[in-house]
């Protein structure tokens, strides 16, 4: 017995572990795992279970810990492949003009280059962050802020601000605001131009709610108290144009339902998941635009709203905001007042608007 143990200890080490003729390519093509085991799995469930000690469904299922390891890798791969193709904030005059033309054609709101809003996406409380990610509704979240075009595509996103932030603070610290309001027009928005049927040049802008201060490049609605006729008309036309961003968020959450639950990931991974969902949303809008036709809001022949399927579902929660009553500029208010007069005039009105403000 002792002699045999000594012989095993003195056994000559292997010169090679795998012979050269048994290459990795041949093993993948002719090996037991890729040939016989596959046939056994498809032809005899009982024999497969006896051989592997696993039912076929469990054998094919990826374990949760394995899946968790590849989430970031898959998100990074999708972003690297498609991000620059499907989600890029315009930087050329022609691109902005094309977006504004579609807003005017579909929503009768000229010179609008996008609709801005933000939503909460729930996450589990990150370790050692206290109340940093706790929002005004009492749960933990990150914020997705987005600029959306007239075709429900995301033009620009800011992902991952903590849930305690509000719309205004996120936008005020963004590169979008910096680019839109820069004195040298780094985004190359079109020059001021007359509205259809009018002779007064009006700048191009985006639209948002009262969380954002009004200025030359951002229009928000009037306060609902003591509104005059022109102001009610303006608010109706603005809300009709802003509907695209609500629909974009609704379609996004309806399609990628992971956003309606609570993401049990670190904030950095949550940002990647949300960004990936937005990229895939835009990819679907570009390649298969009819897919969401029954999900988004529509209008009937009388221009009354026909709610989309997303409104019957759980929706993403709005970001808390305080009305920015005194943070606007005089120039912005003058432009809004002029737009109100224009929309109420014969040149800028639409036939159904009066009944919508009753």
Automatic annotation (TrEMBL):
Superkingdom per UniProt: Eukaryota
Obligatory cofactor(s): a divalent metal cation
GO CC terms in record: nucleus
Matches recorded under Pfam families: DDE_Tnp_4
Keyword annotations of the record: Hydrolase, Metal-binding, Nuclease, Nucleus
Record localization: Nucleus
DDE Tnp4 domain boundaries: 116-282
GO MF terms, alphabetically ordered: hydrolase activity; metal ion binding; nuclease activity
InterPro entries: HARBI1-like, HARBI1_dom
Family of the protein in this entry: Belongs to the HARBI1 family.
Name this polypeptide is given: DDE Tnp4 domain-containing protein
